[in-house]
């Protein structure tokens, strides 16, 4: 499996199909997986909790437990007031009871790894943002007309093969997909097509937007901004002067805009740019011209990051979803714009006369010029915080323990070194 897909930053003419997959009450679902008698019952998973003890905090609670007011980050002692322990509840207790279990990260990571394997198999690019949450770019695999069936069968697969439920949101970018997956939890599937985005977002309370936490929401309300619709029509300059750059970002999110590509977390192992034609074309000069523009963009990105590359590749998508990738590896890392252009044109030759819908250019096998780059694993072990913290967007939510990134889910293929000048046919997914 490779985490380094070919999904490049979207260009303005490009629409993407992005899924956000978020497992429902994940730790509790894992506990139910190995203890099926807990299904349908209130389950509380405690961080720093030990059987029979009142200490610790709620990491998560099943939806049945949430109905009784139990929620993440609450002290276990408080949860016990709402839901006495099933094992020790007095015989005459006729109210609801809870099943308490201590956190078992090693087990949850195992389950997460199994889910991850499925996700990487169905998407061109995957961004794992926590132990139970990931974004998938499936633009080259499925169109809007069939994405609901696609997402529904992904949910079913995770449920049947792994035994835990997921909610899935689909949108034209990460921020919309994230809001969509939260919209109908648990076991939700919400598809928001590009034309529906503004209408879908408008009535939602601002805190449901990606990047708006409780503190920002309070401040926004103070400014008379309560819904995403209010935020979308608020004065951008006023937002920026109040919240800094983040003001502009949440304004964009309220308007359903989010230019971030779905990229794996951490230091990139490849850099790519992609662009779709408005209408598929078989004009080879137009194809070459577009490839050269993409090559320029990619080279610019490598220069701004001081990156050297050893492998240069192209992607050619024929309508509707026939993805072809070709790449060539050099004997050593280079930073050479002319070479990128000539290799790209060379690789394109076999597609002369073909009808093309979309193109991509990618450089991979990256090293960083300063020679001080930390090993990939170090970078990839870095944690991302919760919603908002992920992008430094917001203060984030209170967490008794963040879903962590030290879960070893970061191995990626390292393409074997290839002989100079040899063109290889690779599957980037
Ligand atoms: P979430 O996806 O935020 O929560 P969840 O999966 O339990 O529930 P939902 O159905 O609303 O998605 O977080 C994933 C896991 O991270 C969660 O199962 C437990 C852990 N976690 C904590 O340890 N502390 C916290 O405060 C939160 C919010 C989550
Ligand atoms: Mg979850």
From TrEMBL:
Its EC number is 2.7.7.7. This is DNA polymerase IV. It is found in: Cytoplasm. The active site is at residue 133. One of its GO terms (biological process) is DNA-templated DNA replication. Monomer. One of its GO terms (molecular function) is DNA-directed DNA polymerase activity.
């Amino acid at each position: 499996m490779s985490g380094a897909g070919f999904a490049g930053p979207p260009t303005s003419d490009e629409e993407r199909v992005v899924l956000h997959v978020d497992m429902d009450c994940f730790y509790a679902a894992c506990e139910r997986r190995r203890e099926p008698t807990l299904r349908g019952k209130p389950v509380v998973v405690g961080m720093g909790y030990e059987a029979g003890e009142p200490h610790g905090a709620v990491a998560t609670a099943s939806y049945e437990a949430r109905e009784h007011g139990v929620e993440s980050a609450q002290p276990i002692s408080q949860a016990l007031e709402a839901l006495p322990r099933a094992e020790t509840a007095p015989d005459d207790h006729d109210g609801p009871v809870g099943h308490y279990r201590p956190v078992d990260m090693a087990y949850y990571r195992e389950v997460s790894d199994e889910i991850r394997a499925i996700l990487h198999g169905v998407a061109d690019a995957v961004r794992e943002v926590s132990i139970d949450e990931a974004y998938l770019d499936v633009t080259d695999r499925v169109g809007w007309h069939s994405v609901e069936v696609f997402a529904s069968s992904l949910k079913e697969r995770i449920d049947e093969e792994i035994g835990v439920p997921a909610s899935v949101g689909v949108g034209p970018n990460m921020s919309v997909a994230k809001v969509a997956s939260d919209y109908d939890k648990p076991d939700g599937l919400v598809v928001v097509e590009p034309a529906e985005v503004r209408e879908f977002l408008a009535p939602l309370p601002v805190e449901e937007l990606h990047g708006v936490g409780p503190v920002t929401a309070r401040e926004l309300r103070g400014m008379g901004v309560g819904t995403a619709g209010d935020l979308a029509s608020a004065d951008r300059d006023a937002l920026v002067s109040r919240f800094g750059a983040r003001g502009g970002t949440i304004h964009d999110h309220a308007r359903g805009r989010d230019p971030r590509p779905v990229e794996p977390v951490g230091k990139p192992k490849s850099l790519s740019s992609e662009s779709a034609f408005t209408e598929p074309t078989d004009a080879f000069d137009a194809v070459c011209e577009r490839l050269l523009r993409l090559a320029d963009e990619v080279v610019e990105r490598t220069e701004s990051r001081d990156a050297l590359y050893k492998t240069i590749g192209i992607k050619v998508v024929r309508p509707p979803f026939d993805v072809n990738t070709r790449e060539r590896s050099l004997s050593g890392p280079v930073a050479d714009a002319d070479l990128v252009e000539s290799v790209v044109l060379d690789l394109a030759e076999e597609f002369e006369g073909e009808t093309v819908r979309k193109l991509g250019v990618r450089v991979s096998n990256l090293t960083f010029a300063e020679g001080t780059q930390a090993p990939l694993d170090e970078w990839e072990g870095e944690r991302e915080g919760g919603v908002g913290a992920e992008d430094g967007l917001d203060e984030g939510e209170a967490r008794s323990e963040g879903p962590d990134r030290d879960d070893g889910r970061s191995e990626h293929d390292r393409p074997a070194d290839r002989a100079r000048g040899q063109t290889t046919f690779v599957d980037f997914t």
